[in-house]
Write the structure tokens for this entry.
Amino acid sequence: MTRPLITAYNWAPDEGRGLVRDMRVRWALEEVGQAYDVRYLNWGEQKERAHRARNPFGQVPAYEEDGLTLFESGAIVLHIAERWPGLWPSDPTGRARAIEWMFAALNTVEPVVWDQVIARVVDGKESWAKDRWPGVLERLRMRLDELSKALGGNEWLDGDFSAGDLLMVQVLRHVGDPAILAEHPNLKAYVARGMARPAFKRALEALRAGQTGAPPAGWPQ
Amino acid sequence: MTRPLITAYNWAPDEGRGLVRDMRVRWALEEVGQAYDVRYLNWGEQKERAHRARNPFGQVPAYEEDGLTLFESGAIVLHIAERWPGLWPSDPTGRARAIEWMFAALNTVEPVVWDQVIARVVDGKESWAKDRWPGVLERLRMRLDELSKALGGNEWLDGDFSAGDLLMVQVLRHVGDPAILAEHPNLKAYVARGMARPAFKRALEALRAGQTGAPPAGWPQ
């Protein structure tokens, strides 16, 4: 087999914090111990024809492996978890529950987290932004409260660390205000635990090493 | 094996249109030809302790089968697709691509569709709702445009009908204004094609037959 090839940015507006979605895939590959290569795009190239052939929505990451091309970070992480051991239990029930938490991260928790990112970063200067913010926070807090109760005093969401935890930690890292996450000390500790994993650190280091590009012309300094 | 048991509402505010997420699971079970039982909740019971034990986020559907309890409609549909043939191709590459479209439906397309639902249904009467609406529509239209190009003249997103199409059709049914979807005739026809499937029709009929409950006290008539 050739090494997997992922497509990522050589610059991103998050200042190397590893919030871009290729981090999910890098982290998963590090967890299973699989080396990979990276095709880097300049910021903006994701919307061009060449990359749209890999991902019709013009986003990163994309993943290539022996003739298989995949987009959607969730599907790629799931593929990696199936291909190499280390990202979920070997029994079918444990595996189904890890997949359940993958979807919970991306389809139940991420939408409210992302809404809060858009409200802050994209719409922050709109005249109505301040009036809308309390509702955004209320929806976010409700979900975090439910997630906090589900996690309780456990180390991970369901038994050992799984692909579900990997995606959930990355989603929670997008909660912009640290005070919001800290309202639930168990969630704050959970994210810290994820980020303390050697595979996370290796992935972040590799991501940062690849940030050799420049912001697009006109990007606010 | 005992028959799968799903948990659903006996009433929902969508007037029997089958937009609630248990429809995804009903449709999947009909596609693979697997009979199932239903536990019905009154509206509001999803937030109570008994159901939170099945789904910590207090949502439907939940799925039970021989000791396995799952929440998250995406994970349940994926489990059904693995358990019985009919929801994706038998080769690993085709299967990975069906999963890719499942995640695309729930993690790339649904957030902008859902934002439009919230903006209309939840926030519609807020003082700032009108000023925010153009941005909501712009993000929705961008995604629909990309999806329309990806579908092109094909019948389904990637080869035969798959679990990815099932989820995508259900997500697109939430686009409230029919004129928005009709801006892309191929997407409009795609949704109609999904709804014309015998399995979809059987699922919707079963869902409607189960709508024997009443709206909660104080629900606007």
